[in-house]
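Can anyone check this?
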Amino acid sequence: MAAFGIDLGTTYSCISRVDGSTGEPVIIPNEAGEDTTPSVVYFESAYKVQVGADAKNVARTDPDHVVALIKRDMGRKNVQLNFHGLPYTPESVSALILKDLVKSVSRTTGETVESVVITVPAYFGVAERQATRVAGEIAGLDVINVIEEPVAAAMYYGLLTPGANRTILVYDLGGGTFDTTVIKLVDGDVTVVCTDGSHSLGGADWDEAVATYLFDYFVAEEPGAGAEDSEELLQDLMLVAEKLKMSLSVRQTAEQAISFRGRTVRAQLSRAAFEEMTADLLEQTLEITDRTLHTAREKGVDKIDEVLLVGGSTHMPIVFTRLAERVGVTPKRKEPDLAVAKGAALFAVHETARTRLTAADGNGRGRRAAVSAERLADELGVPVGTIEKMQGRKVTTVVPRAFGVIVLEDLPPEPGKPEPEEPAMHLVVEHLLHANTPLPTERVTKQFGTAVDNQREIRIEIWEQAGDVESRQPTDNTNIGEGLIKRLPPLKKGSPVDVTFQMTEGGKLFVEAKELHTGLTLNLELQIGEMTPGQVADARDAVSRLS
């Protein structure tokens, strides 16, 4: 049974597998013959949905029943949508996109898709990664693993240009998300040095800028048409804005007809004007790139050998030009729209080979498992050489964000004022794991003290960095889990409590809290998800009934 790689994108998604004769990854087109499918879902009725281009087109006439950019909501608490009286979560909406990709494979090739690797942005935290896994489970898939999009792209790029050891900067500007990652490729191994990004910045923001320009142009040209407050017109323009943006990647000027209530105007937009109106968006990506390169230098990387462009939005010529100026290296494009899915297919073979061909004995040493490389190659439908090549590779990633606990801390006295008898206190997040720490991490322990006298319970709250940079302010972090040490004797203020964090290679976070006087311990295993196993099963049943 083949293993597939899926790029579950914010605006477009696609699916790939490793070809049985060449050993190279290939994209499996959808039923319309397109390599990519719009990540848009239209809830036509309580029993019927449409996914892809048809759903995107319906957004003009029935926008209230169309969902786009759902990836930006993955892992967020209390996000629930309702259509035709039925509730949907971001995970179940994403599952519908996954099911459509799987259906396309079945109809175009006759293959059954069961085992998959799904890609996520490099900066996705624990909650978003688990939500992506849950989406796959709701779609009825066996999710072998999730892999960061730039790592997948680097694996594919490494296949195209084997042999050379180099350090690359992956600049990944997709439809709805952006990240930059510094990666070392050494003898086929992929090692992430550091990563940074934004979940609310992507090509859709450039589209919105174009749509706003067209809207304002029409209103100025036809002030009496009553278009000033028309959501319908703005929705129509959002659909054409992407095509206009794409045309400006190959032409210096483009023209768009705008029609509303029987009136039509033709708007022209030059590439130079487009680049000027979106300069602030591009600058945001370059600032994140600068931050990533600064972190890389702190970790000993003094030279970037190559810059790899990933994501459909990197087709904009200004991205190439400004990035070359900023980094001092001429960027390269290697199928920016498809590289992530193709790399995910390679990683699917890598993970399958790693788990099926090597097991660990009781002392933790590797040994050969019962299945041979030849048999596994036959099962996956790939050349045995691909199995051997992927098995020998090592992929090392990093902690995507900072993780810590919330604590009460004394406020320093105000200058010029007498020190109070009881100092004021405020809540801060004390991070134990920091972004870009290599995975798996070592055990990191920090000692804290109880907050007040006679304390009989200790609440441990786990918080994850939410902003672009690490911050101790709770507003810049998200509570992702908590637990309670109960039944303690009355403790003095400052009684010691050890808190230990450790994260696995797959991004699972283990937290241990121990009150040292009694030895009472709290253990938390955080692979966060809003949905319980029962809710996942219910969602799977609900999604399976939709046609």
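Reply from J.R.: I decoded it. The first strand starts at residue 3 and ends at 7.
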